[in-house]
Amino acid sequence: METRAVPREVSHAGGMTHSLEAACGLQRNLPWRKLPAYLIGQFLGSFTAAATVFGLYYDALYDYTKGNFTVTGPTATASIFSTYPAPYVSLLGGFFTEFMATVMLLLGILIIHDEKNNGALKGTQALLTGILVLGIGLGMGMNTGYAINPSRDLPPRLFTAIAGWGMDVFTAGHHWWWVPLTAPMLGSLAGVLIHKLFIDFHNQPVPESGNEKGQPVVETSTL
Amino acid sequence: METRAVPREVSHAGGMTHSLEAACGLQRNLPWRKLPAYLIGQFLGSFTAAATVFGLYYDALYDYTKGNFTVTGPTATASIFSTYPAPYVSLLGGFFTEFMATVMLLLGILIIHDEKNNGALKGTQALLTGILVLGIGLGMGMNTGYAINPSRDLPPRLFTAIAGWGMDVFTAGHHWWWVPLTAPMLGSLAGVLIHKLFIDFHNQPVPESGNEKGQPVVETSTL
Amino acid sequence: METRAVPREVSHAGGMTHSLEAACGLQRNLPWRKLPAYLIGQFLGSFTAAATVFGLYYDALYDYTKGNFTVTGPTATASIFSTYPAPYVSLLGGFFTEFMATVMLLLGILIIHDEKNNGALKGTQALLTGILVLGIGLGMGMNTGYAINPSRDLPPRLFTAIAGWGMDVFTAGHHWWWVPLTAPMLGSLAGVLIHKLFIDFHNQPVPESGNEKGQPVVETSTL
Amino acid sequence: METRAVPREVSHAGGMTHSLEAACGLQRNLPWRKLPAYLIGQFLGSFTAAATVFGLYYDALYDYTKGNFTVTGPTATASIFSTYPAPYVSLLGGFFTEFMATVMLLLGILIIHDEKNNGALKGTQALLTGILVLGIGLGMGMNTGYAINPSRDLPPRLFTAIAGWGMDVFTAGHHWWWVPLTAPMLGSLAGVLIHKLFIDFHNQPVPESGNEKGQPVVETSTL
Question: I need a labelling partner for B25 at 20 to 30 A (CA). Which of A55, C34, D114, D142 fits?
């Protein structure tokens, strides 16, 4: 019962569930049979959002590019929809950036929801996750535009391929497209692992479960 | 009794009730007989606010325009009070922008207040609605200045017509004035409909109402 | 006894109690005999803060002005400490700005603490008051620098008069110094009055008390 | 029992515990035998963070400096990792800035957690501490880059010494490195002292402890 509650709650927090998909083997909060629905839901949501933004800013895009939608060059606009690496970034540097940014995202989400360790107030987690994503963007977004979510990057990229930018969206940045697909998945697994090893294993049990190892119940309950 | 509580609460949330007026048939939270008072109240409030801003910045307006208040041209100032489309925006594009921005506003407000689905903490909704409006402005405000509320746009426009800008406030932007009046109303209806169809119908009933469809009560209550 | 609780709580909210001093006759939350201590406390706090900022930025001030501390001119620095009107602002415009900005401040503070009308969550009022002051600064600060508090303006002005800027701090802006002293006091009275007339009188009594028209004791204590 | 709860809780609040280490003699919340683990933990965390940032931005650093990592000069980059004083700041001015900024940090943290005096809501303290640090940075960061924490400054400085910037990181700014090590420790002690003298000693006891001096219990409990 309780295992079902968590992904739903987290999915509310800014649509940043993606990592929990990859991490569901570790966290065991999401049954495997629900994974396809989450994947398809996030894909469709992200694709629809890209199409909506295209509709909203079609006039502006046309005005700025004179109708010539390009991935590179002086009036490049593809990076409005999906991420591309900065010119100075190596493939390794870009991969490491997406990996680390997703580690930070997962660490943040798990700490915000860590009720055993002074987690955030119920009903404020979505706000805090938004601030977390803003912080990751400001601090770690310069290299790669912080996809930190496969479903935030691939569906809009597919949309741009269809909507007039062509197959350049896949070849640009030395075939960059696969990095924001794989690095966040590995990063989310690593983030969950780090949280388990360095924080969660050292948390005290919740009061109800009794008094283990002689530790006073009061200590954890008042955190 | 309870029906009175909801509009009051939402009206507190940044003055963004407007959409609920249009949507009161769908949401059934506001009795029809109360609609005129809400309409008149919002109209007077918005008109008074425009007059106050005019008073506050009369010196600055006079200094900047040399007393020549215009809707277009190098020292145009009418858009301080009501919205006008950017030069590149088509009528269809502008209408769609106001429509979609109001859809997002309503979706956000309804999710913030969705107590069946991990809604925001009571007493923090006004803050979150403010952040929501800020986000809509940053993400969707470039084309049209995001009126997303008929009563935020028409009364200040009337005020500027009277206060020295003249009838240009109605003819500018290919008679733009009717768009922020109609598009937000349709958008708010669509937003409520989308929330009903995609979220609210799938919410579990609140615990008190018992155990329906065999779903465990715990699941929803712990969300 | 219980009446003492209120100013303490509000004083926590960003140090913006000032208006309640002026308004204590209307709100009746602060006994008159406590007024002098509040006035002296705010004066000393504000004066000490100005001296601390002077100490912190003495090197920068000296570097920027070559030791010549002036109120006007190309390297004017007095407005770091107290407020001065923008060049285009008339005395009436400046007075009205400070008056209206303080009306908004008081309306905001009273609504944040209005427990009968979906007030803010206890423990979040200080944050919201900070956001309120930020909003007033962004929206209404251009003309006069939003003193909106006599004790925020006069003590730093006295400090600058002593610390090297001389009596120009009182003559600048057509003897501006008395405006941020008087306009906020009148504005705070007007703000409390507006809240009483347009909001508080229409609030429902708190359920438990059930004592209408006799004004239950609970009402003031829970502000 | 209760004494253990506090540092853990505060340590959650943005990693800004440092001052409580120095202040543990005054606050008596942290047993001395736990101090080494806190010192080592913060040192390792800060050093690892510096190494991670170096990894994340190695490509950008190399691109900007052509591989020549320097502490001063046109392409200086050392201040990305640890703090250096602005050119105009004297040693005394810099020391005073770090001292005062840490006084403000400690005053803020203690007030946020001051449950006897309308402290912040449990679960929102981390957010408020983040806003506090942002405010200190905006208001007091210009002179010295606000280290306000020895363990935020020395470990990254050591890292840069090793990673290619050399011993200049210790000689730059007239051997600045020892200031952000000592001034915050003294400042944190002073902050705790000021809070004790001016606020905490005047707080009423928590309701449970009974009714002292004839003061009603309700007064403090409703703050």
Answer: A55
Q: Over 50: is that where the pLDDT of B211 sits?
A: no
User: Which residues partner with C70 through β-bridges?
Assistant: C76
The CA distance from C62 to C67, in Å, is 5
Domains in chain D, CATH or no CATH each: 15-199 (1.20.1080.10)
Contacts of D206 (CB under 8 A, 6+ apart): D115, D116, D220, D221
Between helix D91-112 and helix D179-198 the angle, nearest 10°, is 40
- Return the ∠ at Cα B152 (arms to A128 and B165), rounded to 5°: 135
**Using an 8 Å Cβ cutoff, are A50 and A160 in contact?**
yes
Q: What is the rounded CA–CA span in Å between residue A115 and residue A221?
A: 10
Nearest CB among A1, A59, A123 relative to B120 is that of A123
Tell me which DSSP letter residue A161 carries: I
Contacts C–D by Cβ distance under 8 A: 67
Nearest residue to D101 via CA among D149, D169, D33: D149
In the DSSP assignment, the letter for residue A205 is: P
DSSP D46-90: HHHHHHHHHHHTHHHHHHHHTT--BSSSTTB-GGGTS----TT--
Query: Touching check for A212 and chain B: CB below 8 Å?
Result: no
pTM above 0.90, yes or no: no
For residue B205, the model assigns a pLDDT of 63
Test B218 with A8 for CB contact under 8 angstroms. no
CB-nearest to B60 from C118, C124, C142 is C142
Which neighbouring-strand residues pair with B70?
B76
**Distance of residue C91 Cα from the nearest chain D Cα, in angstroms:** 30
Question: What are the tokens at B32?
Answer: 């029809």
**Residue scoring higher pLDDT (C31 or A154):** A154
Q: Which residues sit opposite A70 in a β-bridge? A: A76
User: Among B14, B195, B184, which residue's Cα sits nearest to residue B101?
Assistant: B184
- Directed axis angle between helix B58-65 and helix B35-56, to 10°? 60
Q: What does DSSP assign to residue C70? A: B
- Distance in angstroms (rounded) separating the CA atoms of residues B80 and B62: 14
Angle at B48 between CA B47 and CA B52, to 5 degrees: 120
Question: What are the pLDDT digits (tens) for A165-210?
Answer: 999 999 999 999 999 999 999 999 999 999 999 998 888 765 544 3
Q: Is the pLDDT assigned to residue A81 strictly greater than 90?
A: yes
d(CA C125, CA A19): 34
ipTM topping 0.85: no
Q: What CA–CA distance (Å, rounded) separates B116 from D174?
A: 61
What lies within 8 Å, CB to CB, of A197 at 6+ separation is: none
Find out whether A56 and B143 touch, Cβ atoms under 8 Å. yes
